[in-house]
Amino acid sequence: MALLRSVGVKAGKGSSSFFSLTRRLVHGAQPLSVRAFSSAVSPPSKAVVYELHGSPDTVTKLIDLPPVEIKESDVCVKMLAAPINPSDINRIEGVYPVRPPPPAIGGYEGVGEVHSVGSAVTALSPGDWVIPSPPSFGTWQTYIVKNQNVWHKINKDVPIEYAATITVNPLTALRMLEDYITLNSGDAIVQNGATSMVGKCVIQIAQSRGIHNINIVRDRAGIDEVKEKLKKLGADEVYTESQLEVKNVKSLLGDIPEPSLGFNCVGGNSASLVLKFLRQGGTMVTYGGMSKKPITVSTSSFIFKDLSLRGFWLQKWMTTDKAGESRKMIDRLLGLVRDGKLIYDMEIVPFDNFKTALDKALGKLGSQPKQVIIF
């Protein structure tokens, strides 16, 4: 019923199949009766929708949506910006563990401006900036109507592209640094995938706390420039995988203490390199598997080093009554952005050019920065 409410009672030009599929899913084969709207309705909207799971570049399309009723506890938000995350792509493909059933509107995080509010809403006013927190399905549309509890008010003193992207990757970095062991200034961590958005956030948040960070990246052209950029963000050491093909990687540490915590988003040999750096009793947290290769751990790592392997999934963390805590963490991260202590690469793309942004996010045009749609 929630999707029908977002879509309205009929879809725009070229979207008859989307409407008919919504009708079948929600109403079965019975004729659809048109419900009269109250006087409080949203403006018409545009949205990126998909009717079936599949390759995002073939199953998504931009359609027009009619006005949506604004109930007394609802807030109508004019979306300002929303990113295209890998998890968004996986949801459309149908391979992400938690996903809305199609037909659905794409997108999971973003930032918007309050357009209007229901009669019972007192905490938000038109003009406020808000983000869905926890993140909420359907951010790739120009206007969204949802209950006031969905929205978290934020200050307007940060660039909208940062507000739009603060909830998933930076929050993942922060939670992993704080959820597994107690790190103090002077301690060290090690991670692979250091050029990823999460990796860059880990470097900067660690530096802000006086925590040393050792970073592993894949061998590539222009690696010296890559290393220099990471060191400017606050990386203590950056090694390519080939540089770590030595018997004792810890001999490379110098004055940096052995890391007690490691992060893995690659898997395969890259994960094994993270494990090599860890000290006795250390912990490796896996939050991704970009290489699509399994993690192989030696028996001695368990018996003689007593290493622990853990996993992190932000969506699971946020579904364990963490909404209030996560909002405090988001405000803290936005404070780092405001102070110039948290930066990462993004490319802003107008909503009308969504298909181009999607191609870039899919890697069709080579390595690209995070694509952020501006509405």
Number of helices: 13
CATH topology of the largest domain: Quinone Oxidoreductase, Chain A, domain 1
SSE sequence, one letter per element: HHEHEEHEEEEEHHEHEHEEHEHEHHEHE
CATH second-level architecture of the largest domain: Alpha-Beta Complex
Structural domain tally: 2
Helix content: 25-40%
Which outline best applies?
globular
> Structural class, from secondary structure content?
alpha/beta
Rg over C-alpha atoms, rounded to the nearest angstrom:
23 Å
Overall CATH class of the largest domain: Alpha Beta
| Percent range for β-strand residues | 15-25%
Number of strands: 16
Give the termini distance in whole angstroms.
26 Å
Biggest sheet features = 7 strands, mixed
CATH superfamily of the largest domain: Medium-chain alcohol dehydrogenases, catalytic domain
Mean pLDDT across the residues is 88
Describe this protein with a few key phrases.
2 domains; NADP; NAD(P)-bd_dom_sf; 22% strand; alpha/beta; 375 residues; transit peptide; 7-stranded mixed β-sheet; Rossmann fold; 6-stranded parallel β-sheet; 30% helix; Quinone Oxidoreductase, Chain A, domain 1
SSE diagram, text form:
Elements: H1 2-7, H2 16-27, E1 45-50, H3 56-59, E2 60-65, E3 74-83, H4 86-93, E4 104-105, E5 111-117, E6 129-132, E7 143-147, E8 151-154, H5 160-165, H6 169-179, E9 188-192, H7 197-208, E10 212-217, H8 223-233, E11 237-240, E12 261-264, H9 268-277, E13 283-286, H10 299-303, E14 308-311, H11 314-318, H12 323-338, E15 346-350, H13 354-361, E16 370-374
Helix pairs in contact: 6-7
Main location: mitochondrion
Subcellular location: Mitochondrion
GO molecular function: enoyl-[acyl-carrier-protein] reductase (NADPH) activity
